[in-house]
Amino acid sequence: METADLRIALFSGNYNYVRDGANQALNRLVGYLLRQGAAVRVYSPTVAEPAFEATGDLVGVRAMPIPTRGEYRLPLYLPARARRDLARFAPNVVHVSSPDPVAHQALTWARERDLPVLASVHTRFETYLRYYNMAWAEPVMEAILRRFYRRCDALVAPSESMAQVLREQRMNYDISLWSRGVDREVFHPARRSLEWRRSLGIGDDEVAIGFLGRLVMEKGLDVFSDTIDELRRGGVAHKVLVIGEGPAREWFEARLPGAVFAGFQNGEDLGRAVASMDVLFNPSVTETFGNVTLEAMACALPVVAAAATGSESLVDNHGSGRLIRPGAVHQFAEALRAYIANPDLRARHGAAGETRARDFGWDRINQAVADTYVRLIRQKRPNRR
């Protein structure tokens, strides 16, 4: 069997209605598979005005807005129309990308037909509870996720550190890597623009500490702002540059007086924004890979990040950035202080990060997923006979 023989039914909780790193990776994967001659059908909630155009054929499923997070939708069930479409499409492999009710139904549908199921892990859902004062429920959430993922034939994780967490949590025994790539045409040191910085009120000699991502509490906004407070108390001169939008923007702006909020950026504008930072600060512990970390590295920025899944597989501590114990505000501040005070250190660690980023090409990475589909189909064939 070759990649061109694949017929993949992909189930996503958010394929294109809100832009984030996970669904952009899924769209890139589908685009790659279609170019290789594979057939792909995507089942996901749809909205009247999605964040971007979907890659491939998209079939809507029934969904409802998530309470307190109305921009996201919870897939509830596969309507009869979608089930008929799925039967006509006749996939030879099923891919689920979030453990929602529709994914559970798709998993049952596939198992009844002895079709292989691959699950891709894009975020650490159990850690979200910490940001809603429900950390006590993490073991319960972990058990629910374990039941779902063990019913799948295999998992793919975006980083070795995340794969190791999944092994330790006993989520599955077949776990391989589906890493993330970076577009080197967009993310490159040459995109840096002093003119753009000046238009935002950032001086040429000011050190801009960057935040990049959706403005939601689970991205570590509290740790970020507490760390900036400590720098201010210590009289450390700096500027904060925030790239992104989200429901917590008003809260974040109130916590960071004097920060520059450049809003949502995309394409070449995003590459310019990232390259125009001086250091990226990423305190989040919810990522499984850390696309923003890789994008900053490709722009030759040193990265100060939480020592958590994703960043641990990308950042060389004391080589291309700093990995700090999650939530350790004083240590985060000290790491940032060192980069602010020492431009040679910033340049040296930034250059090392750019070299590392060259290893992440999208086609090679996405072919690894196609190879996993083929392997799972071959493993199922003896059972069918």
Describe what is shown at a glance.
By secondary structure, the chain is of the alpha/beta class. It has helices at residues 21-35, 80-89, 101-112, 125-128, 138-150, 160-168, 194-199, 221-233, 249-255, 267-275, 291-298, 311-314, 329-341, 343-357, 362-384, and strands at residues 7-11, 39-44, 57-60, 62-66, 69-77, 93-96, 117-120, 154-157, 175-177, 208-212, 239-243, 260-263, 279-282, 303-306, 321-324. A seven-stranded parallel sheet has the order 3-2-1-6-7-8-9, with helices on both faces. A six-stranded parallel sheet has the order 12-11-10-13-14-15, sandwiched between helices.
What order do the helices and strands come in, and which of them pair?
Elements: E1 7-11, H1 21-35, E2 39-44, E3 57-60, E4 62-66, E5 69-77, H2 80-89, E6 93-96, H3 101-112, E7 117-120, H4 125-128, H5 138-150, E8 154-157, H6 160-168, E9 175-177, H7 194-199, E10 208-212, H8 221-233, E11 239-243, H9 249-255, E12 260-263, H10 267-275, E13 279-282, H11 291-298, E14 303-306, H12 311-314, E15 321-324, H13 329-341, H14 343-357, H15 362-384
Parallel strand pairs: 1-2, 1-6, 2-3, 6-7, 7-8, 8-9, 10-11, 10-13, 11-12, 13-14, 14-15
Antiparallel strand pairs: 4-5
Overview features:
single chain; 385 residues; alpha/beta; Rossmann fold; seven-stranded parallel beta sheet; six-stranded parallel beta sheet; 42% helix; 18% strand
